[in-house]
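Predicting structure from sequence has reshaped protein science. With that in mind, we have picked out one protein's residues alongside their backbone shape tokens:
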Amino acid sequence: QPLLVESGGGLVQPGGSLRLSCATTDSTMQYYIVGWFRQAPGKEREGVSIISTTGTNTNYADSVKGRFITSRDNAKNTVYLHLHNLKPEDTAVYYCAVGNQYYPDTKYRGPNSWDHWGQGTQVTVSS
């Protein structure tokens, strides 16, 4: 099974940008649908985005639509989440997950709805 490695989190001021990466340690990323999720302290995990295997189809949670963009470079076995115009309420641990089902929305359906999960990367938005 692939190992997912996330990177790119950090501390950023409101209005700033970050790019998160989710990479597989083998060449299987191209076969996976990828979801991004986040979990803030004391809150339930929520879906952020989903991207199809080719990148042709994407979907976003209403809270991030117009600010976040997910993309992928299958040649690099990597999927990205570009975060723009960040707000303090975006502060959370961000997780990527891979699977074989393109869900009709970004709703979090539980850990078993995806095949593999990354370890998470912290994003903190604060002045």
The longest strand covers residues 92-99. DSSP finds no helices and eleven strands in the chain. The mean pLDDT is 96. The CA atoms of residues 52 and 119 lie 21 Å apart.
